[in-house]
Design goal:
- The structure is a single chain.
- This protein is an alpha+beta fold.
- The protein has one domain (8-154).
- 20% of the residues lie in helices and 24% in strands.
- The chain has three helices and eight strands, in the order αββββααββββ.
- The chain has helices spanning 8-16, 67-76, 90-101; strands spanning 27-29, 39-43, 46-49, 55-57, 116-119, 125-133, 139-145, 153-154.
- A four-stranded antiparallel beta sheet has the order 1-7-6-5.
- β3 and β4 form a beta hairpin.
- The longest helix has 12 residues, at 90-101.
Length: 155
């Protein structure tokens, strides 16, 4: 029998805090069904995400100050026989971050500290990091930065 557990403290905080849990443009919420790992280390410096089939570079680049440099680095990356790497979308980057926060990364390890480049809707590129916000459950606010690493993804 499946039971739904609602954390009482975050819900109460949402009701008591001014503004409650209103939607914030740079905030996302992560939910994942089941209890198993979402990532698997498949060797050669790559982790694969179950469900989506996305492949993530385990390592990361040096820091770049411009979006164009970051994009070129990802597009020129050749890793484990693949040459179709790209910058992740902000949503993909968020999901990766949340998977580690929820300990659903399986045998996959990655350096997570710092800011990373990602693609935004409309073709804009931004460097930033996700900051935890526990007022309304498991949410993270996106904070823009001036430079960042690249963690490439494919396809």
């Amino acid at each position: 029998m499946k039971t739904n557990f609602v954390p009482v403290i975050p819900v109460l905080l949402c009701l008591l805090l001014p503004g409650g849990c209103r939607h914030v443009e740079n905030q996302m919420r992560f939910t994942a069904e089941g209890r198993g790992a979402i990532l698997a280390d498949i060797g050669n410096g790559i982790c694969m995400e179950s469900g989506s089939g996305l492949m993530w570079q385990q390592g990361r680049s040096r820091k770049f100050r411009s979006a164009e440099e970051a994009r070129q680095w990802a597009e020129n990356l050749e890793l484990a026989g693949y040459d179709d790497w790209r910058l992740p979308t902000r949503g993909e980057y968020y999901r990766l971050h949340a998977v580690f926060k929820l300990n659903r990364n399986g045998n996959c390890t990655m350096e997570k500290k710092g800011s990373y480049w990602s693609e935004l809707p409309g073709g804009e590129t931004s460097a930033g990091t996700w900051i935890p916000d526990y007022k309304c459950g498991i949410t993270f606010d996106y904070e823009r930065k001036r430079s960042g690493h690249v963690r490439a993804v494919r396809p």
